[in-house]
Amino acid sequence: MSAELRDLKVGRPRQRKPRTCWKCAKVFARPANLRRHLQKKFKCDKKSRKAQKESRKAAGRQSSRVYYLKSKLERAGGFLLEEGGELV
Q1: Is there a domain that residue 78 lies in?
Q2: Could you tell me which residues belong to the region Disordered (predicted)?
Q3: Which of 42, 66, 35 is nearest to 56 (CA)?
Q4: What is the C-alpha to C-alpha distance for residues 36 and 26, in angstroms, rounded to an integer?
């Protein structure tokens, strides 16, 4: 058997799966990473990026507000809890 016949591959040639996001043009190492990127809650389109920015803004405000209120309570002498777990 010749070397040419031995090296021939039988069947339909495989096509490479895409690894580039068609929305943001980001290139990934594996097709699975692209799939994970596209299945995120906040995707890479403009609408989702805007929603992500707004949610981060709201979360930051909420956490800073909680931090402020806790520190204000501590400066005022803390808050006392009764045995039932309610504020005095």
Answers
A1: no
A2: 39-64
A3: 42
A4: 13
Q: Are 88 and 80 in contact (CB under 8 A)?
A: yes
Whether residue 5 is contained in a domain is answered as no
State pLDDT tens for residues 30-58: 999 999 998 887 778 888 888 888 989 99
Count of structural domains within the chain: 1
Residue-range definition of the domain harbouring residue 55 = 16-73
To the nearest 10°, report the CA torsion of 42, 46, 52, 55. -130
Does 40 reside within a domain? yes
Could you tell me the sign of the dihedral formed by the alpha carbons of 80, 83, 86, 88, in that order? negative
pLDDT digits (tens, 9 = 90+) for 5-26: 777 778 887 888 889 998 888 9
**pTM, rounded to two decimals:** 0.43
**Token representation of residue 31:** 């097709």
